[in-house]
C-alpha cells in the first residue's frame, strides 16, 4: 500500500531520516521500532505530509503522494495520530467524533439559513455513528463527558475512534501506548486488531512497549540513525546482532538483555 523510496529529511546538518526505504503491505499491522532519535516520528511526519521531505519519494497504492498536505492525504484515507492526543477539550467525546467527517452541511453559511432540516438530519446520523464507534471502543459511557476530562488512555481510544468516522485505509499510530495503563493498552490493542481483521484497516505502529508490538505486529521494521536497519518478525529482530547493538551497543553477548527488555 505504502512504498518509501530513499527518503531523506534534513534539519540543517542533522539527517533525521537518512535514505530510508520500506514497504507497508495492505492489511498488515506493521511495527516501527528503534532507539530514541532513530527518526521514526520524523518518518511518520514526512509520509503523512506534516513535514516536506528533503528528497525521496512516497507512493500510496502506486500513486505518488510525496509532499501532499495532510488534508489531501486525509481524503485519500491516510490518517496519523500523535504521541499526545489532540482532542477538542471543551467538547464531549461524541462531539469530537462528529467533527471528523468533511463536507458537512452545517459548514456552509447558506445552509445555516435555508437548510436547517438537512443539517439536523445529518447531525442525528453523525451522532448515531459516533455512538456506534464509542460502543466499539468500549467507551460509550464517556459519550457526554468533556474530552479534556477523560484519561490519557481514553483520549488515545478517542483518537482511534476519529479514524473510524471516515473511510480510513491506513493509520499511522505514534506511541499509542505512551502514558497508558496496562488495562487500557489491552483495550487499544484489541480495537486495533478488530479494525484490522473486521474492517480491513492497515496500521503502522511506533511503540516502545515490546509486549504490545509482539502481540500485534508482523512485520517489524527497525530504524537507527535515520535508516532502516532490519525487517522481519519480532523473533528475527531479536536475533539480529545489528539491532541488538543499535539498542545496547555491545553485540550478541547482551542478547539476553534485549530479550528480557522485550
TrEMBL record:
Keyword Nucleotide-binding assigned: yes
Domain ABC transporter: 2-250
Gene Ontology terms: cellular component: plasma membrane
Source taxon at top rank: Bacteria
CDD domains tied to this protein: ABC_Mj1267_LivG_branched (cd03219)
Its EC number(s): 3.6.3.-
Entries under SMART domains matching the protein: AAA (SM00382)
GO MF term set: ATP binding; ATP hydrolysis activity
Record key words, sorted: ATP-binding, Hydrolase, Nucleotide-binding, Transport
Protein known as: Lipopolysaccharide export system ATP-binding protein LptB
Gene (UniProt): lptB_4
Amino acid at each position: 500500500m505504502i512504498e518509501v523510496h530513499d527518503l531523506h529529511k534534513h534539519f540543517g546538518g542533522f539527517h533525521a531520516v537518512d535514505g530510508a526505504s520500506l514497504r507497508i503491505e495492505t492489511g498488515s499491522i506493521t511495527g516501527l521500532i528503534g532507539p530514541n532519535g532513530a527518526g521514526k516520528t520524523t518518518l511518520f511526519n514526512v509520509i503523512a505530509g506534516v513535514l516536506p521531505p528533503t528528497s525521496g519519494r512516497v507512493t500510496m497504492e502506486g500513486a505518488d503522494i510525496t509532499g501532499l498536505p495532510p488534508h489531501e492525504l486525509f481524503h485519500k484515507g491516510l490518517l496519523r495520530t500523535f504521541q499526545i492526543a489532540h482532542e477538542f477539550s471543551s467538547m464531549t467525546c461524541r462531539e469530537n467524533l462528529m467533527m471528523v467527517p468533511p463536507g458537512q452541511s452545517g459548514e456552509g453559511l447558506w445552509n445555516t439559513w435555508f437548510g436547517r432540516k438537512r443539517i439536523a438530519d445529518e447531525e442525528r446520523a453523525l451522532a448515531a455513528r459516533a455512538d456506534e464507534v464509542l460502543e466499539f471502543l468500549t467507551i460509550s459511557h464517556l459519550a457526554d463527558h468533556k474530552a479534556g476530562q477523560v484519561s490519557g488512555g481514553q483520549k488515545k481510544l478517542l483518537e482511534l475512534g476519529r479514524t473510524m468516522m471516515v473511510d480510513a485505509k491506513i493509520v499511522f499510530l505514534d506511541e499509542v501506548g505512551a502514558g497508558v495503563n496496562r488495562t487500557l493498552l489491552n483495550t487499544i490493542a484489541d480495537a486495533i486488531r478488530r479494525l484490522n481483521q473486521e474492517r480491513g484497516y492497515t496500521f503502522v505502529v511506533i511503540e516502545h512497549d515490546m509486549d504490545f508490538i509482539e502481540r500485534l505486529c508482523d512485520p517489524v521494521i527497525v530504524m537507527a540513525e535515520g535508516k532502516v536497519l532490519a525487517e522481519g518478525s519480532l523473533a528475527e529482530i531479536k536475533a539480529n546482532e545489528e539491532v541488538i547493538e543499535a539498542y545496547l551497543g555491545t553485540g550478541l553477548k547482551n542478547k539476553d538483555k534485549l530479550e528480557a527488555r522485550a
